[in-house]
# Entry
Amino acid sequence: MAPALAPAALFGLIIGSFLNVVAWRLPRGESLVKPRSKCPGCDTQLKAYDNIPLFSWLVLRGRCRNCKTSISARYPVVEAVTGALYALVVAVKHDDAAQLVLGLVLVTFLVPIAVIDLDVRRIPNALTAPAAVLAIVLGALLAPHDLPEQLAAGAAALIFFMLPAMLSKKGMGMGDVKLAAVLGLYLGRAVAPAIFIALILGVVVGVAVMTSTGVTAGRKVKIPFGPFLAAGALIAFFVGDSLVDSYTDRF
Ligand SMILES: [Zn+2]
# Structure
């Protein structure tokens, strides 16, 4: 059966629109369900037809219909990325129900986690805690024989990150430690390449920042690690098992 990519992408756009709301309101302690979204410039509540994921922003060219205040491109970007990731999960995992469900749930948590960490340098427990619970519950229901590997990978990632996080004053925080553990619960053994990729991405971006600002100023720039963990996790989710296999085959 051909995977339903267009419906998956469309569904992802709608979820992405909600994730924008989560990413903005959760760190500010606001309700996720009401009121309706408002224009940040003139406080006009958005009409349903001006709140269509991606398309409204494009049609209105990133401006409020009422007051022409420009609306950040981050909203359509988050929606488009979520839509693309949903379609990708369905494309790659459509013949494996457990991986399909875990992948969609993982994307749904990683998008707001990455955006919030970029925004406020914090990964809320309000996201990592339910993500952990869902990974264990879904794993137990859909693929119980994989559950021991999930739990072991979560514990290993937690221990791996705990020490550097406790020693370093800046950079790694407890939010990153908890996120790494959550990734173990979703990825199983593929959490190893996920962390490896995240560390490499972090070093590459860190060096790039220091090159552009100078070492002294660059050292003061606090780069959130959550987005790298999220990127590493997604790459590992799609190709991680083959990475682990090709590595273990060699030895
Ligand atoms: Zn406005």
About this structure: DSSP finds ten helices and no strands in the chain. The CA atoms of residues 50 and 65 lie 8 Å apart. The mean pLDDT is 91. The two ends are 37 Å apart (CA to CA).
